[in-house]
Amino acid sequence: MITTPIQIRFSDIDGMGHVNNSVYWNYFDLGRVEYLQQALGDDFEARDETVVLVHVEADYKIQTKLKDSIAVRTRVVGIGERSIKMRQEVVDTTNGEVRVSSYSVLSGFSKRTQQSVLIKPEWREKMVVEE
Predict the structure, then answer these.
(1) CB atoms within 10 A of CB 47
(2) Does the residue 63 lie in any domain?
(3) How many other CB atoms are there within 10 angstroms of residue 24's CB atom?
(4) Strands (E), the chain
(5) In total, how many domains does the chain have?
């Protein structure tokens, strides 16, 4: 699991005074990219064979305000033939409270052929599956 600190920006806040639900998708993207960069190398997105997001869902638990201190925790929970499954949580860094949780599926993908590809064996070796 990796933890990505998040800086909440004023533009993330909606009229209700909390982080807008749609903004969490950006936070989860930051966590996924950091995880993949650490596991697969900084240039993973520049390669022909990469991964693309094909499914994402979220459960909103507790609102987040502008002055809150948060981070995204990201872990791989499964690797299939062509997919990587991830769980993520936006957590309060002061008390560990989960604000939002997410489940996502990434598919191996070739930019050249625009088709799904198998998850490379070397990628499997570099990612730790955690439940």
Answers:
(1) 12
(2) yes
(3) 23
(4) 2-6, 49-60, 70-79, 83-92, 98-110, 115-116
(5) 1
Cα(96)–Cα(70) distance, integer angstroms = 9
**Cα 89 from Cα 75, distance rounded (Å):** 9
Instruction: Tell me whether residue 131 is in a domain.
Output: no
Distances (CA, A) of 26 to 30, 33, 87: 6, 11, 15
Under 8 Å between Cβ of 106 and 116: no
47-78 pLDDT, tens digit per residue, is 888 999 999 999 999 999 999 999 999 999 99
What is the residue range of 54's domain?
A: 2-126
| Residue 88 maps to a domain | yes
- 2-6/70-79 β-pairing: antiparallel
Phi/psi region, residue 29 (left: phi>0; alpha: psi -120 to 50; beta: rest), is: alpha
Q: Where are the alpha helices (DSSP H) in the chain?
A: 23-40, 121-126
pTM given for the model: 0.92
